[in-house]
């Protein structure tokens, strides 16, 4: 039987999207206003403070207001201006210029935001929303709408000491749009490739005269096709938010979202397989054809998702601040698909999740030493239920012909303590957390209970010089349960990991620019992955070691020039999977990746307000399976992106607030074959989107 979805949530190569079950079986000082990406108060809810492309502080690494220069761990930031300039249409587009982030491993597939950082899968356990874990189930992954974001913080390396269950590769914190103090109104229309038509709106400002209540309402409606005729990309999205700020010490923000989206149940192409001497398939792929494997008459993948939660902050004094975040989320999926040779299938899944985090921040001075102590408790609970139906008929599975039913409830409770110690130029961070896991899993009537506990920690030391240079060293561990997974007659043990990192950060004096570099050595044990064993697709556990080097430079300079550049080297080696793969390179993880984005806006003359941007992304060669067979090696490739925009008020003052913009990704239409975990796909081709925006 073939399944075009995942049977499990894991932390490394947990699934193969688009694939079926059997297949994957001057020297001038820059004077820029600091922009705090957050509408109510700096510091609430994981804000990003930034000058253009350059972020100055973020809460993601420590849950406290810590300058990025003084944060002894590798972190990248995608600011609001970067989002505005590049107009990403998915999370993969947004992180594509981030060092160490591998997007496109599964070619074109709009159903999931599947990517790795430092060779470690981020899809299930690495994506957070507003500092809280985004609860996902095997086929219930929340879809991201980038238009609803203020920014993205990407912390590389383990952060379980304060976040609990999370990827060894790091934390990708998606920061929702929040109400603004001043009135802000925006509407936009978009059109582009594959019949795309989209309308956006974003409205915000104070509600009452005494400026204690603020609102924001963000949304869009989209009707669009894709490069596969049978796969659409339709969406309705709305995100209301309210902030109550009765005084300077107290802030209460409510964040909500509802999204109804529809795309294709399968985005796979027919693959050719190696044959033995008797003409029987060995199960080893030798390449993809251009024949679409699905059927447009039975290929809808509808998903409805919603979330509602709040963020509360109260400052008792300069010493004590209490914060609490709570979110309830739910989604439902209905996936139809057809696979050549196996007939059709139907997957229905629902999940519900509650996540809370409460912590007290204490700032204490003991002699010449400053302490910022964080003590917290967080609890998360996931429940999901799915039904799988398969039919041998050409089109349409019988919903009553259930092949498999799964149900699971998983609860994770953690307590944590962190101390950020500041003495002269030294910065020492020490943190520890203990988690308790309980799980009840039932599959086709068989029940599996699990109780486990784990301690995780982090220690980091940095030195901040007077001239903006800050070397550091850090060590951290991770712990991640594996929901929906049965191995060897029992539930899989949690995935664990550890990393040591040595790096340096440099903020260039007199310039709004920063440089970051890091060397890392990371190990992850017990990640659940798909592997073809004796011709069948099986779930096995993987141990992997990833070592490498990353460097990133970001700047917003005088005269309208912005740039972002990165390079990463990653060596991801399989330590344990199957005997024939030990010592091999992890599939689809290239050794070399690099990117450069330049954006220039004309400041004077007739062309004032004209912005031109270009980007190049290089992805080095990699292996297409964990056996490292040369026949499906992924060739190195280069993608070109571009953008042009113009503020129409420069033509006529009456057009103030109007901007015309065109963005193109993969401008040269590089659509080569890419193989991952013994299955091959095709790259997403060129996509062009034109927009007309009005702000007032």
TrEMBL record:
It comes from the Bacteria. Its main location: membrane. Keywords: Cell outer membrane, Ion transport, Iron, Iron transport, Membrane, Receptor, Signal, TonB box, Transmembrane, Transmembrane beta strand, Transport. It is found in: Cell outer membrane. Residues 68-171 form the TonB-dependent receptor plug domain. Residues 1-22 form the signal peptide. InterPro entries: Beta-barrel_TonB (IPR000531), Beta-barrel_TonB_sf (IPR036942), Plug_dom (IPR012910), Plug_dom_sf (IPR037066), TonB-dep_rcpt-like (IPR039426), TonB_sidphr_rcpt (IPR010105). It is a multi-pass membrane protein. Residues 244-667 form the TonB-dependent receptor-like beta-barrel domain. Pfam families: Plug, TonB_dep_Rec_b-barrel. Belongs to the TonB-dependent receptor family. This is TonB-dependent siderophore receptor. It comes from Microvirga arabica.
């Amino acid at each position: 039987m073939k399944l075009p979805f995942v049977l499990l949530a894991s932390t490394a190569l947990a699934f193969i999207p688009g694939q079926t079950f059997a297949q994957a079986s001057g020297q001038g000082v820059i004077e820029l206003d600091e922009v705090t990406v957050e509408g109510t108060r700096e510091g609430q809810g994981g804000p990003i403070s930034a000058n253009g492309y350059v972020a100055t502080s973020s809460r993601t690494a420590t849950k406290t207001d810590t300058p990025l220069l003084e944060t002894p761990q590798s972190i990248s930031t995608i600011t609001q201006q970067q989002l505005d300039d590049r107009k990403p249409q998915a999370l993969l587009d947004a992180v594509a210029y981030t060092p160490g982030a591998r997007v496109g491993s599964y070619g074109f597939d709009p159903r999931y935001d599947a990517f790795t950082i430092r060779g470690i899968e981020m899809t299930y356990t690495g994506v957070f929303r507003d500092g809280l874990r985004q609860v996902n189930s095997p086929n219930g992954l929340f879809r991201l709408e980038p238009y609803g974001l203020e920014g993205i913080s990407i912390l590389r390396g383990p952060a379980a000491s304060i976040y609990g269950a999370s990827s060894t590769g790091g934390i990708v914190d998606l920061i929702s749009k929040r109400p603004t103090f001043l009135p802000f109104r925006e509407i936009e229309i978009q059109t582009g490739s594959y019949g795309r038509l989209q309308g956006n709106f974003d409205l915000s400002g104070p509600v009452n005269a005494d400026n204690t209540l603020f609102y924001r309402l963000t949304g869009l409606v989209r009707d669009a096709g894709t490069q596969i005729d049978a796969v659409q990309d339709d969406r309705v999205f709305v995100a209301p938010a309210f902030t109550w700020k009765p005084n300077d010490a107290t802030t209460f923000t409510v964040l909500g979202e509802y999204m109804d989206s529809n795309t294709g149940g399968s985005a796979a192409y027919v693959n050719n397989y190696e044959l033995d001497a008797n003409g029987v398939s060995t199960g080893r792929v030798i390449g993809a054809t251009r024949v679409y494997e699905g059927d447009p008459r039975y290929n809808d993948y509808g998903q409805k998702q919603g979330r509602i939660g709040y963020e509360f902050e109260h400052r008792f004094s300069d010493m004590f601040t209490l914060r609490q975040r709570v979110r309830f989320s739910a989604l439902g999926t209905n996936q139809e698909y057809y696979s050549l040779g196996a007939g059709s299938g139907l997957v229905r899944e629902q999940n519900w999740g509650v996540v809370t985090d409460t912590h007290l921040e204490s700032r204490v001075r003991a002699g010449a030493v400053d302490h910022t102590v964080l003590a917290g408790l967080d609890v998360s609970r996931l429940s999901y239920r799915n039904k799988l139906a398969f039919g041998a008929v050409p089109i349409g599975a019988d919903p009553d012909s259930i092949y498999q039913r799964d149900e699971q409830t998983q609860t994770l409770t953690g307590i944590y303590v962190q101390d950020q110690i500041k003495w002269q130029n030294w910065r020492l961070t020490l943190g520890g957390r203990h988690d308790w896991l309980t799980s009840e899993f039932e599959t086709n009537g068989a029940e599996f209970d699990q109780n486990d506990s784990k301690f995780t920690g982090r220690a980091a030391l940095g030195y901040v010089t007077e001239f903006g240079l800050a070397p550091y060293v850090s060590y951290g561990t991770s712990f991640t349960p594996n929901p929906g997974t049965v191995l060897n007659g029992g539930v899989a043990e949690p995935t664990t990991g550890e990393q040591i990192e040595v790096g340096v950060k440099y903020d260039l004096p007199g310039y709004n620019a920063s440089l970051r570099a890091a060397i890392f050595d990371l190990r992850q044990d017990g990640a659940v992955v798909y592997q073809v064993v004796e011709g069948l697709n099986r779930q096995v556990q993987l141990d992997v070691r990833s070592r490498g080097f990353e460097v990133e430079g970001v700047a917003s300079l005088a005269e309208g020039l912005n740039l972002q550049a990165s390079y990463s080297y990653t060596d991801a080696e399989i330590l344990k999977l199957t005997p024939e793969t030990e010592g091999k390179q992890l599939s689809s993880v290239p050794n070399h990746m690099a990117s450069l984005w330049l954006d220039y806006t004309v400041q004077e003359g007739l062309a004032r307000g004209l912005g031109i941007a270009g980007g190049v992304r290089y992805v080095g060669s990699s292996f297409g399976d964990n056996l490292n067979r040369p026949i499906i090696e992924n060739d190195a490739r280069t993608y070109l992106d571009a953008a042009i925009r113009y503020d129409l008020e420069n033509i006529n003052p009456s057009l103030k607030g109007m901007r015309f913009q065109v963005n193109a990704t993969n401008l040269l239409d590089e659509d080569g074959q890419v193989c991952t975990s013994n299955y091959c796909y095709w790259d997403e081709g060129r996509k062009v989107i034109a927009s007309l925006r009005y702000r007032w």
